[in-house]
Amino acid sequence: MAILPYVFVICAYFIGSFSAGIIVCKLFSLPDPRTVGSKNPGATNVLRSGGKKAAILTLLGDSLKGLIPVLVADYLGLGLEWLILVGIAAFLGHLFSLFYGFKGGKGVATAMGIYLGLNPLIGLAVISTWLLSAIIFNISSLSALVATMFAPFYFYYMTNSLALLIGLSFITVLVYWKHSANIKKIIAGTEHKIIKRN
């Protein structure tokens, strides 16, 4: 049992390294998302180049990469700190994929899966924050930044767990780092809108 948590953290990184966007686009004979648009293999870029069906499958796949390892780790009886590490490992696999030259997506969908795995109700609160932000701002990247900013504090407020606050704050910092180009566009007013309004 002593070695199991370490093995599972490694497995979570391995699972996170599979890119749903690249796999879906290949199955649908669509352009590699790394070669078009923002060159990001996430659902938003897949939506622009491949359509809604491919984007939904990408979103689902990337979310499950965060959700399933955490749920299985919980089922196996690993403690909260290990659940957090398992989630972070899956997240790092998505950002720095073992299979794609240690490059990957921006991690928002995978983070949402991790939140749901750690606590479904709080995870839904984070997703609701994304949806509300999307309605208000009409910018996907900004909605992601708002939701992931609040996530650690939601978890800390509801659980009083310092480990969750620290672990999820680490994820937030990486999400912001991966969105540095988007942040510049948001400030400049040139970031893509979810729905183009006249």
Explain this structure to me?
The protein has 198 residues and is mostly helical. It has one domain. It is built from ten helices and no strands. It has helices spanning 4-16, 20-27, 43-50, 52-75, 80-95, 108-118, 120-137, 140-159, 162-178, 180-188. α4 (52-75) packs parallel to α6 and α6 runs antiparallel to α7 (120-137). The longest helix has 24 residues, at 52-75. It is globular.
Largest sheet: none
Average of per-residue pLDDT values:
94
Report the strand count.
0
- Which value, in Å, is the CA radius of gyration? 16 Å
Question: How many domains?
Answer: 1
Structural category is mainly alpha
Number of helices: 10
Please provide the ordered H/E string of secondary-structure elements: HHHHHHHHHH
Give the termini distance in whole angstroms.
60 Å
- Name the poorly predicted regions: none
Q: What portion of residues is helical?
A: over 70%
Overall body shape: globular
Binned strand content: under 5%
Structural topology:
Layout (H helix, E strand, L loop, with lengths): L3 H13 L3 H8 L15 H8 L1 H24 L4 H16 L12 H11 L1 H18 L2 H20 L2 H17 L1 H9 L10
Helix pairs in contact: 1-4, 1-5, 2-4, 3-4, 4-5, 4-6, 5-6, 5-9, 6-7, 7-8, 8-9
